[in-house]
Design goal:
heterodimer; A: mainly alpha; two-stranded antiparallel sheet; 19 helices; 2 strands; globular; B: four-stranded antiparallel beta sheet; 12 strands; binds adenosine-5'-triphosphate; binds magnesium ion
Chain lengths: 437, 255
């Protein structure tokens, strides 16, 4: 990168771009935030307000809503949707759609369940393979979880890869290809599960995935460990930026960020420990949130996904391998759908012919959109999946407590989704007019 | 100004289905020179530079860079040679900030899997400062909100930052007001003064006579002449653009 060094010889204090920034105070930062709000960049504001409103409404109607037991239930209920929606976020960032994730997730769940019971039956190959090899792939009690689960995930990733290859090779709209996928994988699930059947999951780990809880002390340890790493990350970033003479957020604000997160974490673990403890799926959601946020915002791959969603032609002219990135994104979508499917199957301790159906697909896409990821491509963040899923699960859970019919649930969820899309469209227009991030 | 061309195209042809956009076009530019490329709408100017930039390959023809035959198979090849193009339909990603656009496709990384945001931001800020681009408030501003002139400035700054040897500008002032046009033209002159080869496409002959050293005229996909600005006048160029003598009969020349 010597080419850059040679052209960058201006002393830093002369730079008007730098001078205006490095001394940002908390007050100035707050004013900047208000300016962005006014310009239409609402960030997470509508969601947080929405959650507060939902909590108040349901709590006044039924005081079981804000209880430790229901709180933990909420986490268990939202996990599957959240993990599927993580993959959807990447697809939406590209400006594409993946309608197959519902049944691809079912393929993951059913695949794992079947492999746990019987492995792969290779007996039809008995004329070339020795018996010992065949029985290794189809042992008496089925595959171990540490083989069955990765295999199921590999399978769903391969399905996503296949969708991506078809879309890019034949230059087809993702809408059509994944719609075909929706139907095809539904068929595969029906065939695998068998007529009217249900398959029970017996493996301890596979059941624990969606149903286990951390012991109380471990809940605390994990939470404080995570907060510590977060603070360390912020501190390191602050140091490199000041070293380079770049603008930084005021240090008081960074401290405030850590403090708020710590308080939320303490409340979360405290409440969860009042009931059964911190659910394992809670940890899974947070781990994927961190990993995928890093992927989206700190790597070349993520940068390219945003660039393609914003201006595909510009990305191509910049030498970005557009088609390869698109295939990768659909692969991620398949993988995350599969992971969500494992959680959903585990939670029910079984898979049935209706796996992946109902409004799972709609809920997963709605979660990403309600959380603030734009349907128009190029705008959004991974955390919108978790925020949106929290809203959807709260509405669902609260209306269940009130004993409302599923008809009512659908209508309310639809209204929430519509509101989110309207907010997205309006804020997009205002942002285009003002141009402030 | 050196006499040896840094970039030379020989007999480039390109057709889109039935449309022959370029027919055996010769073109060259020398270091420190501003070469104008003019011609009517659809004459093939953008097609010529997209071929140079590796957006698509010429059907026939040879490209020489610094005297050596080169093959440009994609935008990365062109960038690696030191050819930077500022497109007519500006190739910026509106949803990304200034820094991300300056480094698009060539991001700096700390590890193969980790972007070096601080270094990229610093290089961006310093380049913009060195070009005296003072109208941009923050390097972290989203490009969607910038004016036409600011976007041109970013595209040009990108070329400078990457230490390019040839900078090609496709109608850089088409959408700009008087003051912003002035800024871009000054920038063009400054780039050539530092020894870069600059190719500028424009329909505004007045601007061209102000900044260009030589003028290449395309008509119906053919090179109808290259003129030294100082020895020519607008009338001669206008005549070449509208009625320059064609070597090949359009549409029948080749398959
Ligand atoms: N991608 C394409 N597909 C088909 N035809 C094309 C394509 N690009 C250019 N052409 C055709 O090639 C010819 C030359 O177009 P080009 O864009 O190079 O003209 P230009 O000189 O840049 O014109 P302008 O001054 O309007 O920008 C035109 O007839 C155009 O219609
Ligand atoms: Mg053009």
């Amino acid at each position: 990168m010597s080419t850059i060094e040679e052209t960058t010889r201006t002393p830093k204090h002369e730079s008007p771009l730098l001078a205006g920034q490095s001394s940002q105070s908390l007050n100035e930062h707050f004013q900047g935030y208000m300016r962005r709000l006014k310009s239409g960049d609402l960030g997470s504001m509508p969601i947080i307000l929405g959650l507060v409103v939902i909590a108040i409404i349901f709590q006044t109607q039924n005081d079981n809503f804000l209880t430790p037991r229901n709180f933990v239930n909420l986490v268990l209920q939202m996990a599957g949707i959240t993990v599927i929606a993580y993959g959807i976020v990447f697809v939406l960032l590209l400006g594409e759609i993946d309608l197959s994730v519902g049944f691809v997730s079912a393929v993951g769940g059913v695949g794992m369940t079947i492999l746990l019971r019987s492995g792969v039956d290779l007996s039809f190959l008995s004329f070339i393979l020795p018996d010992s090899v065949i029985s290794a792939f189809a042992p008496e009690g089925g595959w171990a979880w540490y083989v069955a689960i990765p295999t199921a995930l590999l399978l769903t990733a391969a399905i996503g890869f296949l969708h991506g290859m078809i879309i890019t090779l034949f230059q087809l709209p993702s809408f059509v290809v994944t719609l075909a996928g929706l139907l095809a994988w539904n068929g595969v699930v029906l065939i695998l599960v068998g007529q009217g059947g249900t398959i029970i999951i017996q493996d301890r780990v596979a059941v624990g995935l969606g149903n286990a809880f951390l012991p109380d002390t471990w809940g605390w340890i994990v939470m404080f460990g995570a907060i510590g790493l977060y603070a360390l990350n912020l501190a390191l970033r602050y140091r490199t930026r000041t070293k380079q003479g770049l603008a930084t957020k005021p240090i008081t604000l960074l401290a405030l960020q850590v403090a708020v997160l710590a308080v939320l974490g303490i409340i979360f673990v405290y409440i969860a420990n009042q009931d059964r403890g911190v659910p394992v799926v809670g940890i899974i959601m947070v781990v994927w949130l961190v990993v995928l946020t890093f992927l989206a915002e700190r790597t070349r791959f993520g940068r390219y996904v945003y660039a393609i969603g914003g201006n595909k032609e510009a990305a191509r002219r910049a030498g970005i391998p557009v088609e390869r990135i698109r295939v990768l994104v659909f692969t991620i979508s398949g993988f995350m759908a599969g992971f969500g499917g494992l959680i959903l199957a585990s939670r029910l301790r079984s898979v049935a012919t209706n796996a992946g159906g109902g409004n799972l697909l709609l809920n997963a896409i709605a979660a990403a959109v309600i959380g603030g990821t734009s349907l128009f491509g190029g705008r959004g963040r991974v955390n919108s999946a978790i925020l949106g899923a929290l809203i959807i699960a709260s509405v669902d859970n609260g209306m269940g407590l009130l004993g409302l019919s599923s008809g009512n649930k659908f209508i309310i969820t639809a209204l929430v989704l519509l509101a989110a899309v309207v907010i997205d469209a309006v804020s997009r227009r205002r942002q285009e007019q003002s141009g402030i991030r | 100004m050196s006499e040896q061309p840094i970039l030379e195209i020989k007999k480039a042809s390109k057709s889109f289905g039935a449309v022959q956009a370029l027919i055996e076009v010769d073109f060259e530019v020398r270091p420190g020179e501003v070469m104008a490329l003019v011609g009517d709408n659809g004459a093939g100017k953008s097609t010529l530079i997209k071929g140079i930039a590796g957006i698509y390959a010429f059907d026939k023809g040879e490209i020489y860079f610094e005297g050596k035959r080169v093959h440009i198979h994609g935008p990365r090849d062109a960038a690696a040679l030191g050819i930077e193009v500022v497109y007519q339909d500006l190739a910026l990603a509106d949803n990304l900030d200034v820094v991300a656009n300056m480094f698009l496709g060539r991001e700096l990384v700390q590890a193969p899997w980790r972007l070096d945001e601080a270094a990229m931001e610093r290089a961006t800020v310093e380049t913009l400062d060195s070009l005296a681009v003072t109208t941009i408030q923050s390097a972290r501003q989203i490009v969607a909100g910038l004016s036409g002139g600011q976007r041109q400035a970013i595209a040009v700054a990108k070329a400078v930052m990457w230490n390019s040897k040839v900078v090609i500008l496709d109608e850089p002032t088409a959408a700009l007001g008087v003051a912003q046009t002035r800024q871009v033209l000054d920038l063009v002159t400054r780039l050539a003064d530092t020894g870069l080869a600059v190719v500028i496409i424009s329909h505004n002959l007045h601007d061209i006579f102000e900044v260009a050293h030589r003028i290449t005229v395309l008509r119906l996909g053919q090179n109808v002449g290259t003129y030294v600005t100082a020895e020519s006048d607008q009338q001669e160029i206008v005549h070449a653009i509208t009625a320059g003598e064609l070597q090949f009969v359009p549409g029948m020349a080749q398959e």
